[in-house]
TrEMBL record:
Keywords: Coiled coil, Nucleotide-binding
Species whose genome carries this gene: Cyprinus carpio
Alphabetized Pfam families for the sequence: AIG1
Gene Ontology terms for molecular function: GTP binding
Keyword check for Coiled coil: yes
Domain AAA+ ATPase: 68-242
Lineage: Eukaryota, Metazoa, Chordata, Craniata, Vertebrata
Protein name, as recorded: AAA+ ATPase domain-containing protein
Length: 548
């Protein structure tokens, strides 16, 4: 019996060694003489449609429909060790042990830095990478959605592009329709949150609908094995919503980031012991993590898609609101100048005589977009009927304008007349409101308002009606933006997001102007609820924006 068991163990070991040798034969050596020897898995297919804000890399083929399939999304700050964590996940799935003295990688350790450099010089690129992992050696099929690091101080737009990429992914025909786990990757050494870190945690939380909270877990990297008390306190201060265990504590897993030693470094007993501890800690954390994933119910991306779309629409509506309110006020000023001219020349009006006067008028001009303004997109979605900028920066990934996140039921949710998407264009130009001084005559004015000679009362009435119509339009714009925030309050995981707070002051001011004190109070309560930490982070965002 013992001999039989030993033969079975030998057979199992031989099979494992054969599997590892097979994987190595299909990989590229990174550092074959290091400890362990490092190899990069080569994707069987590398799909990269430049019209999409994500790229796909597939390892193996998904043939076994009975094999469990899990989808994991990883997000975190630049420098947290997210890439190393992904590679640890892959080695765990392959059953690699420390004594095998091999280490497989699916991405470059410095991919985040390379991606940042690449993004800074390319007009279009992918901001999300999807790894499909379908190797027979793995007990499950695995999809990893990897986002670039948050909080790159060189460009805040990178973080917006992550949300654009996720929105595109949730709306595409891609096979990803649900998420098993959202992993927030955090350094275990984090203790006191800086404004930048508050912003990063807030930005990550702002991606999701509230239904996904129980699928969010914390992955602490660079761990010494001890409970990360300070980091957990920082998470609490940041009001991060995540899965809770039976002790009402956040669900978290610990990992170290030291599984290999470069070949050009001397390797001694201390290194071996450190590496052993690191390996054991990370693989124990990975075992616990996948046990959690196995038992949690996956969530669809539907509510998250709605949150991302509402945030995009809110930003576009606020941008459009500011320009349109400015236009409305300029038109109001133009009419007031006209009324003043009539009053000043009332004797000419009374005697039915013509006279000339000057007025500052507003007009629209199509201008080129500053090529330095936005990194990924140099185009805006504009309505040719309303002559308005409906989405700037626009959805550069949208193959058809009906896919623009501003469209609903094939009509724009932003422009004045809610025009059909076919009335819109996506070009490297935007509308700008400008003013100029024009000379006008009383005769021109009578023709414009279609009144009889000397009928100044009728003219004044029509001008008042025009002013009222413009004021009604302004009110409608403000209420639409308010309803965007209301919707986010209902469906968003992060209800007082910094992305919303950026626009709160504008909304409060305009709501008061249109005599909506209760709605203004609602906005003020959101602002108050956010707390001092978020208002400090809001200053951080404004500082980054001012550098652009």
């Amino acid at each position: 019996m013992a001999d039989c068991t030993e033969r079975q163990n030998m057979t199992s070991l031989e099979q494992k060694l054969h599997n590892i040798a097979e994987i190595i034969s299909q990989s590229s050596s990174i550092n074959g003489s290091g400890i362990p020897a490092r190899y990069r898995l080569n994707p069987r297919t590398d799909l990269h449609d430049k019209s999409e804000p994500y790229r796909q890399k597939t390892f193996g083929e998904r043939n076994d429909n009975n094999k469990p399939h899990k989808t994991i999304l990883l997000v975190g700050e630049t420098g947290t060790g997210k890439t190393t964590l992904i590679n640890t996940m892959i080695n765990y799935m392959l059953g690699v042990k420390r004594e095998d003295k091999v280490w497989f990688e699916i991405t470059d350790e410095h991919q985040s830095e390379q991606m940042s450099d690449m993004l800074s010089v390319q007009s279009q690129t992918s901001s999300i990478t999807i790894y499909g992992f379908y190797l027979p050696e793995s007990p499950i099929d695995l999809t990893i959605i990897d986002t670039p690091g948050y909080g790159d101080t060189r460009d805040i737009d990178n973080d917006k592009e992550i949300s654009i990429g996720l929105l595109s992914l949730s709306r595409s025909d891609n096979s990803i329709h649900e998420i098993d786990a959202v992993c927030l990757v955090i350094k275990s050494s984090v203790n006191r949150l800086s404004d930048r870190q508050v912003y990063i945690f807030d930005a990550v939380q702002s991606l999701f609908g509230k239904d996904i909270a129980e699928n969010i877990v914390l992955l602490f990297t660079h761990s010494d094995g001890m409970r990360p008390k300070n980091a957990l306190t920082a998470v609490k201060v940041a009001k991060i919503k995540c899965a809770i265990n039976d002790k009402n504590q956040p669900v978290f897993f610990l990992f170290n980031n030291c599984q290999s030693v470069p070949a050009d470094e001397e390797y001694n007993e201390d290194d071996e012991k450190t590496q052993e501890q690191s390996w054991d800690r990370s693989f124990k954390g990975m075992a616990n993590f996948f046990k959690f994933v196995e038992n949690i119910k996956p969530k669809t991306l539907l509510m998250t898609r709605d949150v991302l779309q509402q945030r995009n629409q809110l930003e576009a509506k606020i941008f459009n609101l500011r320009s349109r309110v400015q236009e409305v006020e300029q038109k109001q000023n133009e009419l007031k100048q006209t009324k003043e001219a009539l009053e000043k020349n009332k004797e000419y009006v009374k005697d039915k005589k013509n006279f000339e006067y000057e007025v500052k008028v507003q007009y629209k001009d199509r201008v080129d977009i500053d090529p330095k303004r936005w990194r990924l997109t140099k185009k805006a979605t504009c309505c040719t009927v309303c002559e308005e900028n409906c989405h700037y920066p626009g959805c550069w990934w949208a193959k058809d304008l009906s896919w623009c996140s501003m469209m609903k039921d094939d009509h724009c949710t932003v422009c004045t007349n809610k025009c059909h998407y076919s009335k819109h264009v996506k070009e490297a130009k935007i509308y700008e409101s400008k003013t100029k001084t024009e000379k006008r005559t009383y005769e021109d004015l009578k023709k414009k308002y279609n009144v009889k000679i000397g009928d100044s009362v009728s003219m004044a009435t029509k001008m008042e009606e025009k002013l009222q119509k413009l004021e009604t339009e302004k009110v409608k714009l403000v209420i639409e933006a308010f309803h965007c925030v209301e919707t986010l309050e209902l469906i968003a995981l992060n209800t007082d997001s910094l992305f919303t707070l950026q626009h709160i002051d504008v909304l409060i001011e305009k709501l008061k102007e249109i005599n909506e004190p209760e709605k203004a109070k609602t906005m003020e309560n959101i602002k108050k609820r956010a707390g001092e930490e978020k208002h400090g982070a809001l200053g951080y965002i404004k500082c980054l924006i001012s550098k652009k």
